[in-house]
Specification:
about 625 residues; alpha+beta; Outer membrane efflux proteins (OEP); 3-stranded antiparallel sheet; efflux transmembrane transporter activity; OMP_efflux; Cobalt-zinc-cadmium resistance protein CzcC; MdtP/NodT-like
Protein backbone atom coordinates (compact mmCIF):
# COMPACT_ATOMS: atom_id res chain seq x y z
CA UNK A 1 0.00 0.00 0.00
CA UNK A 2 1.25 3.50 -0.76
CA UNK A 3 1.43 6.09 2.00
CA UNK A 4 -0.48 9.11 0.71
CA UNK A 5 -0.55 11.23 3.85
CA UNK A 6 -0.56 14.86 2.65
CA UNK A 7 2.64 16.82 3.10
CA UNK A 8 1.07 19.37 5.41
CA UNK A 9 -0.17 16.68 7.82
CA UNK A 10 3.20 14.91 7.79
CA UNK A 11 4.97 18.20 8.48
CA UNK A 12 2.73 19.23 11.33
CA UNK A 13 3.05 15.75 12.91
CA UNK A 14 6.81 16.13 13.17
CA UNK A 15 6.41 19.55 14.79
CA UNK A 16 3.93 18.25 17.38
CA UNK A 17 6.02 15.14 18.04
CA UNK A 18 9.04 17.31 18.69
CA UNK A 19 7.05 19.65 20.94
CA UNK A 20 5.69 16.78 23.05
CA UNK A 21 9.06 15.05 23.37
CA UNK A 22 11.12 18.17 24.11
CA UNK A 23 8.63 20.25 26.03
CA UNK A 24 9.05 23.20 23.64
CA UNK A 25 5.95 25.44 23.54
CA UNK A 26 4.38 26.25 20.20
CA UNK A 27 4.55 29.69 18.59
CA UNK A 28 2.29 29.74 15.55
CA UNK A 29 3.75 32.88 14.02
CA UNK A 30 7.40 33.87 14.41
CA UNK A 31 6.40 37.53 14.12
CA UNK A 32 4.54 37.18 17.43
CA UNK A 33 7.50 35.70 19.31
CA UNK A 34 8.61 38.61 21.44
CA UNK A 35 12.31 37.81 21.99
CA UNK A 36 14.47 38.11 18.88
CA UNK A 37 17.57 36.52 20.45
CA UNK A 38 17.61 32.76 20.34
CA UNK A 39 19.79 29.72 19.83
CA UNK A 40 18.94 27.52 16.86
CA UNK A 41 18.97 23.96 18.11
CA UNK A 42 17.24 21.78 15.58
CA UNK A 43 16.55 22.12 11.86
CA UNK A 44 15.30 19.42 9.52
CA UNK A 45 13.92 19.28 5.99
CA UNK A 46 11.62 16.64 4.59
CA UNK A 47 12.28 16.27 0.91
CA UNK A 48 9.31 14.00 0.38
CA UNK A 49 6.83 16.35 1.96
CA UNK A 50 8.47 19.64 0.96
CA UNK A 51 8.37 21.09 4.47
CA UNK A 52 11.15 22.76 6.48
CA UNK A 53 10.93 22.81 10.27
CA UNK A 54 13.09 24.84 12.66
CA UNK A 55 12.87 24.66 16.43
CA UNK A 56 14.61 27.30 18.52
CA UNK A 57 15.11 26.94 22.23
CA UNK A 58 15.66 29.70 24.79
CA UNK A 59 12.62 31.64 23.60
CA UNK A 60 10.86 28.35 22.79
CA UNK A 61 10.07 29.27 19.21
CA UNK A 62 8.77 26.92 16.53
CA UNK A 63 8.73 28.29 12.99
CA UNK A 64 7.03 26.46 10.16
CA UNK A 65 7.49 27.44 6.54
CA UNK A 66 7.34 25.67 3.20
CA UNK A 67 10.33 25.35 0.94
CA UNK A 68 8.28 26.91 -1.82
CA UNK A 69 7.63 30.02 0.25
CA UNK A 70 3.89 29.45 0.75
CA UNK A 71 2.76 30.98 4.03
CA UNK A 72 0.34 29.32 6.42
CA UNK A 73 -2.07 31.42 8.46
CA UNK A 74 -2.33 31.26 12.24
CA UNK A 75 -5.81 29.74 12.03
CA UNK A 76 -4.52 27.05 9.68
CA UNK A 77 -1.72 26.32 12.12
CA UNK A 78 -4.18 25.67 14.91
CA UNK A 79 -6.33 23.42 12.74
CA UNK A 80 -3.34 21.44 11.52
CA UNK A 81 -2.06 21.07 15.06
CA UNK A 82 -5.42 19.68 16.20
CA UNK A 83 -5.49 17.23 13.32
CA UNK A 84 -2.00 16.03 14.12
CA UNK A 85 -2.79 15.50 17.80
CA UNK A 86 -5.83 13.44 16.92
CA UNK A 87 -3.60 11.25 14.74
CA UNK A 88 -5.60 11.96 11.60
CA UNK A 89 -4.43 10.16 8.50
CA UNK A 90 -5.71 10.44 5.00
CA UNK A 91 -7.48 7.31 3.83
CA UNK A 92 -8.78 6.43 0.35
CA UNK A 93 -8.15 9.53 -1.74
CA UNK A 94 -9.27 9.87 -5.34
CA UNK A 95 -6.35 7.71 -6.48
CA UNK A 96 -7.49 4.88 -4.27
CA UNK A 97 -4.37 5.11 -2.12
CA UNK A 98 -4.50 4.11 1.53
CA UNK A 99 -2.32 5.00 4.47
CA UNK A 100 -0.06 2.11 5.47
CA UNK A 101 -0.54 2.69 9.21
CA UNK A 102 -1.41 5.40 11.70
CA UNK A 103 1.73 7.34 12.53
CA UNK A 104 2.48 7.83 16.22
CA UNK A 105 3.45 11.29 17.34
CA UNK A 106 6.15 9.73 19.48
CA UNK A 107 7.81 7.56 16.85
CA UNK A 108 11.38 8.37 15.84
CA UNK A 109 11.79 11.60 17.77
CA UNK A 110 14.31 13.95 16.23
CA UNK A 111 17.42 14.46 18.36
CA UNK A 112 18.19 17.86 19.73
CA UNK A 113 21.74 19.07 20.08
CA UNK A 114 23.21 22.48 20.72
CA UNK A 115 26.95 22.94 20.60
CA UNK A 116 28.38 25.41 23.12
CA UNK A 117 29.56 28.70 21.68
CA UNK A 118 33.11 29.60 22.65
CA UNK A 119 34.27 33.19 22.83
CA UNK A 120 37.45 34.53 21.23
CA UNK A 121 39.11 37.90 21.77
CA UNK A 122 41.76 40.16 20.30
CA UNK A 123 44.85 41.13 22.31
CA UNK A 124 44.39 43.63 25.11
CA UNK A 125 45.72 47.19 24.98
CA UNK A 126 47.60 49.16 27.58
CA UNK A 127 45.85 52.44 26.79
CA UNK A 128 42.32 53.36 25.90
CA UNK A 129 42.88 54.01 22.19
CA UNK A 130 41.22 50.72 21.29
CA UNK A 131 37.48 50.35 21.60
CA UNK A 132 36.37 48.42 24.65
CA UNK A 133 33.85 46.42 22.65
CA UNK A 134 36.71 44.47 21.10
CA UNK A 135 37.23 42.73 24.42
CA UNK A 136 33.68 42.46 25.66
CA UNK A 137 32.36 39.43 27.47
CA UNK A 138 28.87 38.73 28.66
CA UNK A 139 27.35 37.00 31.64
CA UNK A 140 25.55 33.64 31.47
CA UNK A 141 21.80 33.87 31.20
CA UNK A 142 21.04 31.07 33.67
CA UNK A 143 22.91 28.91 36.18
CA UNK A 144 22.77 26.07 33.70
CA UNK A 145 24.68 27.88 30.95
CA UNK A 146 28.06 26.33 31.49
CA UNK A 147 31.21 25.98 29.46
CA UNK A 148 32.60 23.33 27.21
CA UNK A 149 36.27 22.52 26.76
CA UNK A 150 38.60 24.23 24.30
CA UNK A 151 42.38 24.20 24.06
CA UNK A 152 44.41 27.03 25.52
CA UNK A 153 45.28 29.71 23.01
CA UNK A 154 47.06 32.44 24.92
CA UNK A 155 48.81 33.27 28.14
CA UNK A 156 45.79 35.18 29.38
CA UNK A 157 42.75 32.92 29.36
CA UNK A 158 39.09 33.65 29.72
CA UNK A 159 36.14 31.86 31.30
CA UNK A 160 34.96 28.98 29.18
CA UNK A 161 32.07 29.28 26.80
CA UNK A 162 30.27 32.32 28.22
CA UNK A 163 29.06 34.46 25.38
CA UNK A 164 25.93 36.17 24.19
CA UNK A 165 25.28 38.43 21.21
CA UNK A 166 28.24 40.71 22.00
CA UNK A 167 31.88 40.80 20.98
CA UNK A 168 34.10 38.05 22.44
CA UNK A 169 37.26 38.36 24.51
CA UNK A 170 40.86 37.23 24.47
CA UNK A 171 41.02 33.43 24.38
CA UNK A 172 38.77 30.64 25.60
CA UNK A 173 40.37 27.80 27.48
CA UNK A 174 39.33 25.05 29.80
CA UNK A 175 41.23 23.67 32.76
CA UNK A 176 43.81 21.00 32.04
CA UNK A 177 42.40 17.66 31.04
CA UNK A 178 44.94 15.96 33.29
CA UNK A 179 43.30 17.46 36.35
CA UNK A 180 39.60 17.89 35.60
CA UNK A 181 37.90 14.53 35.53
CA UNK A 182 34.43 16.10 35.84
CA UNK A 183 34.72 19.14 33.53
CA UNK A 184 32.20 17.62 31.15
CA UNK A 185 29.74 17.22 34.01
CA UNK A 186 29.95 20.92 34.82
CA UNK A 187 29.27 21.82 31.20
CA UNK A 188 26.21 19.53 31.01
CA UNK A 189 23.77 20.89 33.55
CA UNK A 190 20.47 20.84 31.66
CA UNK A 191 17.35 18.74 31.03
CA UNK A 192 16.74 17.92 34.69
CA UNK A 193 13.85 15.73 35.76
CA UNK A 194 12.44 14.95 39.18
CA UNK A 195 13.33 11.72 40.95
CA UNK A 196 13.23 10.42 44.48
CA UNK A 197 10.55 10.75 47.07
CA UNK A 198 12.54 13.23 49.11
CA UNK A 199 12.96 15.91 46.48
CA UNK A 200 11.30 19.03 47.85
CA UNK A 201 13.19 22.02 46.50
CA UNK A 202 14.80 21.08 43.22
CA UNK A 203 14.78 18.76 40.24
CA UNK A 204 17.43 16.39 39.01
CA UNK A 205 17.83 13.71 36.36
CA UNK A 206 16.45 10.24 36.73
CA UNK A 207 18.31 8.66 33.82
CA UNK A 208 21.31 7.76 35.97
CA UNK A 209 19.33 5.87 38.60
CA UNK A 210 19.88 2.15 38.42
CA UNK A 211 16.81 -0.07 38.12
CA UNK A 212 17.67 -1.65 41.47
CA UNK A 213 17.43 1.71 43.21
CA UNK A 214 20.06 4.09 44.46
CA UNK A 215 21.76 7.25 43.32
CA UNK A 216 25.09 7.90 41.60
CA UNK A 217 27.71 10.58 42.03
CA UNK A 218 26.90 12.11 38.64
CA UNK A 219 23.27 12.57 39.61
CA UNK A 220 24.12 14.26 42.90
CA UNK A 221 26.63 16.54 41.17
CA UNK A 222 23.96 17.54 38.68
CA UNK A 223 21.58 18.32 41.53
CA UNK A 224 24.23 20.43 43.24
CA UNK A 225 25.24 22.37 40.14
CA UNK A 226 21.58 23.14 39.52
CA UNK A 227 20.45 23.97 43.07
CA UNK A 228 23.44 25.19 45.07
CA UNK A 229 22.65 28.82 46.03
CA UNK A 230 26.24 30.08 45.70
CA UNK A 231 26.24 29.30 41.98
CA UNK A 232 23.01 31.24 41.52
CA UNK A 233 24.53 34.12 43.51
CA UNK A 234 27.57 34.28 41.27
CA UNK A 235 25.41 34.13 38.17
CA UNK A 236 23.60 37.18 39.57
CA UNK A 237 26.90 38.99 40.20
CA UNK A 238 27.99 38.34 36.63
CA UNK A 239 24.71 39.81 35.45
CA UNK A 240 25.40 42.84 37.63
CA UNK A 241 28.87 43.21 36.16
CA UNK A 242 27.43 42.99 32.65
CA UNK A 243 24.89 45.69 33.50
CA UNK A 244 27.57 47.96 34.95
CA UNK A 245 29.71 47.43 31.86
CA UNK A 246 26.83 48.57 29.67
CA UNK A 247 26.03 51.55 31.89
CA UNK A 248 29.54 53.02 32.07
CA UNK A 249 29.78 53.11 28.28
CA UNK A 250 26.64 55.17 27.67
CA UNK A 251 27.02 58.70 26.32
CA UNK A 252 25.56 61.76 28.00
CA UNK A 253 21.99 62.70 27.15
CA UNK A 254 21.41 65.98 25.28
CA UNK A 255 19.48 68.76 26.98
CA UNK A 256 16.70 70.61 25.17
CA UNK A 257 15.21 73.77 26.66
CA UNK A 258 13.49 77.08 26.23
CA UNK A 259 14.88 80.45 27.31
CA UNK A 260 13.04 83.81 27.58
CA UNK A 261 14.72 87.17 28.35
CA UNK A 262 13.48 90.72 29.13
CA UNK A 263 9.90 89.67 29.70
CA UNK A 264 9.20 92.75 31.85
CA UNK A 265 10.05 95.17 29.02
CA UNK A 266 7.20 95.49 26.59
CA UNK A 267 7.99 94.39 23.06
CA UNK A 268 11.67 93.76 23.86
CA UNK A 269 11.43 90.15 25.00
CA UNK A 270 13.60 87.46 23.46
CA UNK A 271 12.61 83.82 23.06
CA UNK A 272 15.08 81.04 22.33
CA UNK A 273 14.94 77.27 21.99
CA UNK A 274 18.28 75.61 22.64
CA UNK A 275 19.99 72.24 22.74
CA UNK A 276 23.13 71.43 24.71
CA UNK A 277 25.36 68.38 24.64
CA UNK A 278 28.38 67.21 26.62
CA UNK A 279 31.03 65.79 24.31
CA UNK A 280 33.14 63.24 26.16
CA UNK A 281 36.76 63.38 25.07
CA UNK A 282 39.82 61.11 25.23
CA UNK A 283 37.73 57.98 24.64
CA UNK A 284 36.79 57.83 28.33
CA UNK A 285 33.71 55.69 27.70
CA UNK A 286 35.73 53.03 25.91
CA UNK A 287 38.17 52.95 28.82
CA UNK A 288 35.23 52.63 31.22
CA UNK A 289 34.08 49.57 29.33
CA UNK A 290 37.59 48.13 29.43
CA UNK A 291 37.64 48.34 33.23
CA UNK A 292 34.20 46.80 33.73
CA UNK A 293 34.83 44.18 31.07
CA UNK A 294 37.72 42.84 33.14
CA UNK A 295 35.53 42.91 36.24
CA UNK A 296 33.00 40.78 34.38
CA UNK A 297 35.72 38.42 33.20
CA UNK A 298 36.94 37.98 36.77
CA UNK A 299 33.39 37.23 37.94
CA UNK A 300 33.02 34.59 35.26
CA UNK A 301 36.20 32.92 36.48
CA UNK A 302 34.85 33.10 40.02
CA UNK A 303 31.67 31.41 38.82
CA UNK A 304 33.68 28.62 37.23
CA UNK A 305 35.77 28.26 40.40
CA UNK A 306 32.62 28.04 42.52
CA UNK A 307 31.34 25.19 40.39
CA UNK A 308 34.56 23.33 41.13
CA UNK A 309 34.14 24.09 44.84
CA UNK A 310 30.65 22.66 44.80
CA UNK A 311 31.65 19.60 42.79
CA UNK A 312 34.68 18.92 45.01
CA UNK A 313 32.70 19.15 48.24
CA UNK A 314 29.98 16.95 46.78
CA UNK A 315 32.56 14.35 45.79
CA UNK A 316 34.30 14.30 49.15
CA UNK A 317 31.02 13.94 51.05
CA UNK A 318 29.81 11.33 48.57
CA UNK A 319 32.90 9.22 49.18
CA UNK A 320 32.51 9.70 52.94
CA UNK A 321 28.92 8.45 52.69
CA UNK A 322 29.94 5.64 50.34
CA UNK A 323 32.66 4.55 52.79
CA UNK A 324 30.13 4.62 55.64
CA UNK A 325 27.77 2.52 53.53
CA UNK A 326 30.60 0.08 52.87
CA UNK A 327 31.39 -0.03 56.59
CA UNK A 328 27.76 -0.89 57.33
CA UNK A 329 27.94 -3.75 54.84
CA UNK A 330 31.22 -5.09 56.24
CA UNK A 331 30.14 -4.79 59.85
CA UNK A 332 26.87 -6.57 59.05
CA UNK A 333 28.89 -9.47 57.63
CA UNK A 334 31.16 -9.47 60.68
CA UNK A 335 28.09 -9.38 62.88
CA UNK A 336 26.85 -12.67 61.45
CA UNK A 337 30.31 -14.17 62.00
CA UNK A 338 30.32 -12.95 65.61
CA UNK A 339 26.85 -14.42 66.15
CA UNK A 340 28.01 -17.77 64.86
CA UNK A 341 31.12 -17.53 67.03
CA UNK A 342 28.98 -16.91 70.10
CA UNK A 343 26.77 -19.88 69.25
CA UNK A 344 29.84 -22.05 68.78
CA UNK A 345 31.29 -20.94 72.13
CA UNK A 346 28.02 -21.77 73.89
CA UNK A 347 27.87 -25.18 72.20
CA UNK A 348 31.44 -25.95 73.18
CA UNK A 349 30.66 -24.92 76.75
CA UNK A 350 27.65 -27.23 76.83
CA UNK A 351 29.83 -30.00 75.44
CA UNK A 352 32.37 -29.23 78.15
CA UNK A 353 34.95 -28.44 75.48
CA UNK A 354 34.96 -24.71 76.24
CA UNK A 355 34.60 -22.40 79.20
CA UNK A 356 32.37 -19.55 80.34
CA UNK A 357 35.29 -17.22 79.61
CA UNK A 358 35.05 -18.08 75.92
CA UNK A 359 31.33 -17.25 75.93
CA UNK A 360 31.86 -13.92 77.70
CA UNK A 361 34.64 -12.91 75.34
CA UNK A 362 32.48 -13.81 72.33
CA UNK A 363 29.65 -11.70 73.76
CA UNK A 364 32.02 -8.75 74.25
CA UNK A 365 33.17 -8.97 70.65
CA UNK A 366 29.59 -9.20 69.39
CA UNK A 367 28.50 -6.16 71.41
CA UNK A 368 31.45 -4.16 70.10
CA UNK A 369 30.49 -5.03 66.53
CA UNK A 370 26.87 -4.05 67.21
CA UNK A 371 28.10 -0.69 68.50
CA UNK A 372 30.28 -0.13 65.44
CA UNK A 373 27.32 -0.95 63.20
CA UNK A 374 25.18 1.70 64.88
CA UNK A 375 27.99 4.24 64.58
CA UNK A 376 28.48 3.45 60.88
CA UNK A 377 24.76 3.95 60.23
CA UNK A 378 24.88 7.29 62.04
CA UNK A 379 27.90 8.31 59.96
CA UNK A 380 26.08 7.46 56.74
CA UNK A 381 23.01 9.47 57.75
CA UNK A 382 25.15 12.47 58.73
CA UNK A 383 27.18 12.31 55.49
CA UNK A 384 23.96 12.11 53.48
CA UNK A 385 22.47 15.14 55.19
CA UNK A 386 25.66 17.11 54.62
CA UNK A 387 25.71 16.11 50.96
CA UNK A 388 22.06 17.07 50.52
CA UNK A 389 22.69 20.49 52.09
CA UNK A 390 25.71 21.07 49.83
CA UNK A 391 23.57 20.11 46.85
CA UNK A 392 21.02 22.77 47.79
CA UNK A 393 18.28 20.20 48.33
CA UNK A 394 18.24 19.32 52.04
CA UNK A 395 14.91 17.54 51.72
CA UNK A 396 16.41 14.60 49.82
CA UNK A 397 15.76 11.33 51.60
CA UNK A 398 18.68 8.89 52.04
CA UNK A 399 19.08 6.36 49.26
CA UNK A 400 21.66 3.64 48.62
CA UNK A 401 24.72 5.05 46.89
CA UNK A 402 25.90 3.52 43.64
CA UNK A 403 29.66 3.69 43.23
CA UNK A 404 32.99 2.09 43.97
CA UNK A 405 35.86 3.13 46.19
CA UNK A 406 39.24 3.03 44.39
CA UNK A 407 41.22 -0.19 44.66
CA UNK A 408 44.40 1.36 43.21
CA UNK A 409 45.74 4.68 41.94
CA UNK A 410 48.71 5.88 39.92
CA UNK A 411 51.54 7.91 41.35
CA UNK A 412 51.62 11.60 40.35
CA UNK A 413 54.46 13.97 39.58
CA UNK A 414 53.48 16.69 42.01
CA UNK A 415 55.80 19.29 40.49
CA UNK A 416 54.08 18.95 37.13
CA UNK A 417 50.66 18.82 38.77
CA UNK A 418 51.38 22.03 40.68
CA UNK A 419 52.63 23.87 37.59
CA UNK A 420 49.63 22.81 35.53
CA UNK A 421 47.14 23.48 38.30
CA UNK A 422 48.36 27.00 39.02
CA UNK A 423 48.23 28.17 35.41
CA UNK A 424 44.84 26.63 34.63
CA UNK A 425 43.04 27.17 37.93
CA UNK A 426 40.01 29.47 37.58
CA UNK A 427 40.88 30.91 40.99
CA UNK A 428 44.29 31.98 39.67
CA UNK A 429 42.83 33.28 36.41
CA UNK A 430 40.31 35.37 38.33
CA UNK A 431 43.16 36.98 40.27
CA UNK A 432 44.97 37.74 37.02
CA UNK A 433 41.82 39.27 35.57
CA UNK A 434 41.75 41.61 38.58
CA UNK A 435 45.31 42.69 37.71
CA UNK A 436 44.19 43.48 34.17
CA UNK A 437 41.21 45.37 35.58
CA UNK A 438 43.46 47.41 37.88
CA UNK A 439 45.83 48.22 35.03
CA UNK A 440 42.91 49.32 32.86
CA UNK A 441 41.68 51.54 35.70
CA UNK A 442 45.11 53.22 35.95
CA UNK A 443 44.89 54.09 32.25
CA UNK A 444 41.35 55.34 32.78
CA UNK A 445 42.26 57.60 35.71
CA UNK A 446 45.24 59.09 33.89
CA UNK A 447 43.06 60.58 31.14
CA UNK A 448 40.33 61.81 33.50
CA UNK A 449 41.98 65.25 33.68
CA UNK A 450 41.38 65.85 29.95
CA UNK A 451 38.26 68.06 29.99
CA UNK A 452 35.02 67.30 28.22
CA UNK A 453 33.38 69.88 25.97
CA UNK A 454 30.01 71.48 26.69
CA UNK A 455 28.33 72.65 23.47
CA UNK A 456 25.18 74.82 23.42
CA UNK A 457 23.22 75.85 20.33
CA UNK A 458 20.07 77.99 20.41
CA UNK A 459 17.72 79.69 17.94
CA UNK A 460 14.90 82.17 18.52
CA UNK A 461 13.54 85.65 17.87
CA UNK A 462 13.97 89.19 19.23
CA UNK A 463 10.68 91.12 19.28
CA UNK A 464 12.48 94.42 19.66
CA UNK A 465 14.18 94.11 16.29
CA UNK A 466 11.93 91.57 14.67
CA UNK A 467 14.97 89.58 13.73
CA UNK A 468 15.92 86.01 14.46
CA UNK A 469 18.54 84.92 17.02
CA UNK A 470 21.15 82.16 16.88
CA UNK A 471 23.28 81.53 19.97
CA UNK A 472 26.26 79.19 20.16
CA UNK A 473 28.60 78.50 23.03
CA UNK A 474 31.29 75.96 23.85
CA UNK A 475 33.20 75.54 27.07
CA UNK A 476 35.33 73.17 29.12
CA UNK A 477 36.55 73.05 32.73
CA UNK A 478 40.23 73.92 33.17
CA UNK A 479 42.09 71.30 35.28
CA UNK A 480 43.96 73.78 37.46
CA UNK A 481 43.30 72.38 40.94
CA UNK A 482 41.77 68.97 40.32
CA UNK A 483 43.95 66.88 38.03
CA UNK A 484 42.58 63.61 39.40
CA UNK A 485 45.87 63.00 41.17
CA UNK A 486 44.22 61.29 44.14
CA UNK A 487 42.38 58.73 42.02
CA UNK A 488 45.51 58.03 39.99
CA UNK A 489 47.46 57.31 43.17
CA UNK A 490 44.69 55.04 44.47
CA UNK A 491 44.52 53.19 41.14
CA UNK A 492 48.26 52.54 41.21
CA UNK A 493 48.01 51.22 44.76
CA UNK A 494 45.17 48.91 43.73
CA UNK A 495 47.27 47.64 40.85
CA UNK A 496 50.10 46.76 43.26
CA UNK A 497 47.64 45.04 45.59
CA UNK A 498 46.17 43.00 42.73
CA UNK A 499 49.65 41.84 41.67
CA UNK A 500 50.40 40.68 45.21
CA UNK A 501 47.03 38.94 45.32
CA UNK A 502 48.08 36.84 42.33
CA UNK A 503 51.18 35.76 44.25
CA UNK A 504 49.09 34.93 47.31
CA UNK A 505 46.66 32.82 45.29
CA UNK A 506 49.50 30.93 43.61
CA UNK A 507 51.18 30.17 46.94
CA UNK A 508 47.85 29.17 48.46
CA UNK A 509 47.21 26.70 45.64
CA UNK A 510 50.66 25.18 46.07
CA UNK A 511 50.25 24.90 49.85
CA UNK A 512 46.84 23.24 49.59
CA UNK A 513 48.14 20.89 46.92
CA UNK A 514 51.07 19.92 49.15
CA UNK A 515 48.64 18.97 51.92
CA UNK A 516 46.50 16.97 49.50
CA UNK A 517 49.58 15.24 48.07
CA UNK A 518 50.37 13.92 51.54
CA UNK A 519 46.89 12.42 51.91
CA UNK A 520 46.94 11.08 48.36
CA UNK A 521 50.38 9.49 48.63
CA UNK A 522 49.88 7.89 52.03
CA UNK A 523 46.42 6.56 51.17
CA UNK A 524 47.60 5.25 47.78
CA UNK A 525 50.40 3.26 49.44
CA UNK A 526 48.01 2.02 52.13
CA UNK A 527 45.43 0.84 49.60
CA UNK A 528 48.06 -1.05 47.64
CA UNK A 529 49.50 -2.66 50.78
CA UNK A 530 46.12 -3.66 52.16
CA UNK A 531 44.83 -5.10 48.88
CA UNK A 532 47.97 -7.07 47.98
CA UNK A 533 49.47 -8.06 51.33
CA UNK A 534 47.65 -7.25 54.53
CA UNK A 535 44.10 -8.34 53.67
CA UNK A 536 45.13 -11.71 52.18
CA UNK A 537 47.32 -12.41 55.21
CA UNK A 538 44.56 -11.44 57.63
CA UNK A 539 42.07 -13.69 55.84
CA UNK A 540 44.52 -16.59 55.88
CA UNK A 541 45.26 -16.03 59.57
CA UNK A 542 41.56 -16.12 60.44
CA UNK A 543 41.00 -19.28 58.44
CA UNK A 544 43.95 -21.07 60.07
CA UNK A 545 42.88 -19.97 63.56
CA UNK A 546 39.35 -21.31 63.09
CA UNK A 547 40.64 -24.62 61.72
CA UNK A 548 43.07 -24.98 64.62
CA UNK A 549 40.37 -24.11 67.16
CA UNK A 550 37.96 -26.68 65.75
CA UNK A 551 40.76 -29.25 65.94
CA UNK A 552 41.45 -28.28 69.55
CA UNK A 553 44.96 -27.08 68.75
CA UNK A 554 44.51 -23.47 69.93
CA UNK A 555 42.46 -21.47 72.39
CA UNK A 556 39.34 -19.48 71.64
CA UNK A 557 41.26 -16.31 72.48
CA UNK A 558 43.42 -16.81 69.40
CA UNK A 559 40.30 -17.09 67.26
CA UNK A 560 38.93 -13.85 68.69
CA UNK A 561 42.24 -12.11 68.03
CA UNK A 562 42.29 -13.36 64.43
CA UNK A 563 38.69 -12.26 63.89
CA UNK A 564 39.37 -8.83 65.35
CA UNK A 565 42.49 -8.45 63.22
CA UNK A 566 40.62 -9.35 60.05
CA UNK A 567 37.74 -7.09 61.03
CA UNK A 568 39.91 -4.06 61.81
CA UNK A 569 42.03 -4.61 58.70
CA UNK A 570 39.00 -4.42 56.44
CA UNK A 571 37.75 -1.25 58.13
CA UNK A 572 41.16 0.40 57.83
CA UNK A 573 41.24 -0.58 54.16
CA UNK A 574 37.90 1.17 53.61
CA UNK A 575 39.21 4.24 55.43
CA UNK A 576 42.29 4.30 53.17
CA UNK A 577 40.07 3.97 50.09
CA UNK A 578 37.91 6.86 51.29
CA UNK A 579 40.93 9.12 51.84
CA UNK A 580 42.36 8.21 48.43
CA UNK A 581 39.07 8.98 46.66
CA UNK A 582 38.66 12.28 48.51
CA UNK A 583 42.25 13.31 47.78
CA UNK A 584 41.82 12.60 44.10
CA UNK A 585 38.58 14.59 44.09
CA UNK A 586 40.37 17.59 45.58
CA UNK A 587 43.12 17.35 42.97
CA UNK A 588 40.52 17.14 40.20
CA UNK A 589 38.81 20.21 41.67
CA UNK A 590 41.92 22.42 41.76
CA UNK A 591 42.01 22.01 45.57
CA UNK A 592 39.00 24.33 45.70
CA UNK A 593 36.55 23.75 48.55
CA UNK A 594 33.79 25.74 50.22
CA UNK A 595 30.55 24.96 48.43
CA UNK A 596 28.54 27.11 50.86
CA UNK A 597 31.09 29.81 51.70
CA UNK A 598 29.93 33.41 51.41
CA UNK A 599 30.19 34.73 47.86
CA UNK A 600 32.36 37.81 47.32
CA UNK A 601 30.67 40.28 45.00
CA UNK A 602 33.33 41.73 42.70
CA UNK A 603 30.97 42.98 40.01
CA UNK A 604 32.08 46.60 40.50
CA UNK A 605 29.84 49.62 40.06
CA UNK A 606 28.78 52.22 37.51
CA UNK A 607 30.62 55.05 39.32
CA UNK A 608 33.04 55.54 36.42
CA UNK A 609 30.24 57.04 34.34
CA UNK A 610 29.51 59.62 37.01
CA UNK A 611 33.20 60.41 37.19
CA UNK A 612 33.30 60.78 33.41
CA UNK A 613 30.50 63.35 33.37
CA UNK A 614 31.70 65.34 36.40
CA UNK A 615 35.15 66.91 36.16
CA UNK A 616 34.99 69.53 38.88
Amino acid sequence: MKDCTPAWIEGIRIVVRTILTTGTPYCADSMHCTDSSYYEVFTTSMRRTGWSISIHRKVHRVNISTMTGVSVSRRQHKRLLLLAVLGTTTMGLATGCQSLRPRSLFSDPAPLHAAPRIAETPPQTERGDQKATEGDVSAPATPGDTPGDTPAQADVVNPVGYTDEVDPIDAATSPSDTLTSFTDLISQNENLQTIGSGNTSGSYPSSSIEPSGGITLDVIESIALSNNPTIAELVATTQKAAGFKTQVGLRANPTVGYNANQLADANTDQHTVYISQTIITADKLALNRNVLNEALRAQLFQLEAQKYRVATDIRTTFYAALAAQRRVSLISDFQSVADKGLELAELRKKGQEGSQLDVVQAEVQKNEIDLLLQQAEIQFQAAWREMAALAGNPGMQPEPLIGELPAAASDLDWQDVAATMVTSSPEYQAARARVTQARANVSRQEIQKIPNLNVNLGAGSDRATGEGLINFSIGAPIPVFNKNQGNISAALAEYIRACREVERVENSIRARLAEVSNDYGSSRVAVERYSHLILPNAAESLELAEIAYKAGETSFVQVLVARRTYFDTNLRFVAAQRLLAQSRARVDGYVLTGALNAVIDGSGSASLRGQTLSQQ
